[in-house]
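Researcher: I'd like a structural prediction for the single chain below. Treat it as a standalone chain; there are no partners to consider.
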Amino acid sequence: MAIWELEQNDPIYSTLSELISRYHSHLEEAKIVVYCSDKNRTRANKIVIADASKAPAKLKASTNADFTITLYMMPWGDLDMTQKKACLDHELYHCGVHYEPIKEQVGQSRQGRPRMQVVRDEYGRIQYTNEIRRDENGEPKWRIIPHDLEEFCDVVERYGRWDESVQSFSEALNRSEGE
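Model: Treating it as a single chain, here is the predicted structure.
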């Protein structure tokens, strides 16, 4: 089994740059390193074409990488150019950043300073600004984003668009079919 890092002049990096510029502007400060593997990988008995992860601390320390994307060459090689671009776009969606929560004043402390509280929606979900949260060095705080949809085909077949995430996914499919 071999794993190797792609050279920075590989066309994959220009595709990533194009996708970041067009759809993932929050990643403009991120350093992403792309690896290739000749190992076949499966997860839950499904073929894995690529995966994204936050760079481990040792890699971050030595290369300043924020994220890694690993391409599994056997299935990757079977994709056409549009599928490869879609796959890279998918992996970039996993590369996220923490945003500052929206806060509102809920009173004052005894010292006269405002007491702030994080704003939540009716389900208890924290609401966020578009401002990127940064660490003590001014660097963005990166994170891995989960998939938008976590559902089984059989449940959707039986109950339809029963959940907000299924409805959103269905609407996105309808929009893409209209193009």
